[in-house]
Design brief:
The protein is mostly helical. The chain has five helices and no strands.
Length: 191
């Protein structure tokens, strides 16, 4: 938002600066005969080109003789042409710079999006692997539960379970000043 505003202000400032530059070119054309001849040649070539272009656009004959501009008018036209050329060159350079800057910004955004997408793909693959591993573990558990149990292990399990249940849990060990017999001790006392 701020950049276009400065771009417009810069273009306006450039046009304002180009007018004195054009005036300076006119003065230089009056002082240096070589530069004056160069400017006059540029102005005459521009005059011929624009006149032919206008004639073709309007459908008139283009083979007719084109009268050259007088020297003062040629210097004025060349100075204006060079001033406008300078203005458009700088404006074009500013536009090219903006386009390249925007393209670099878009490339950075695209690279960031691609990185995020790659990261999501890796997470997805990890989740798929975890799901496959959990399925495999579930199948192993189902197979283990479907096997017949041995009877020799079962009688010892209730006793181990009773001992596990009777163990004090939580903060009960703090209150050990009163001794409560555990379930196995009670069974032994009763028998």
């Amino acid at each position: 938002m701020v950049v276009p505003m400065f771009l417009k202000l810069g273009t306006l400032a450039l046009r304002t600066i180009c007018k004195p530059i054009a005036n300076r070119l006119k003065k230089e054309a009056g002082v240096s005969p070589r530069f004056r001849q160069f400017i006059i040649n540029v102005a005459q070539a521009n005059h011929r080109f624009t006149t032919k272009l206008q004639r073709r656009a309007s459908g008139r004959v283009t083979d007719a003789i084109i009268r050259p501009l007088n020297e003062e008018r040629a210097v004025q036209a060349a100075a204006d042409l060079l001033g406008e050329l300078l203005t458009f060159t700088v404006a074009g350079a500013a536009i090219v710079y903006e386009v390249q800057r925007n393209a670099r910004g878009e490339a950075r955004k695209e690279a960031k999006r691609q990185g995020l997408l790659q990261e999501l793909r890796l997470k997805d693959e990890k989740i798929e692997n975890d799901i496959q591993e959990l399925k495999q573990r579930c199948n192993e558990l189902v197979e283990e539960l479907s096997k017949p149990r041995e009877l020799a292990e079962e009688p010892s399990k209730p006793r181990e379970l009773a001992e596990e249940i009777s163990k004090p849990r939580g903060l009960a060990w703090l209150f050990s000043f009163m001794h409560y017999p555990s379930a196995p001790e009670k069974i032994q006392q009763e028998s």
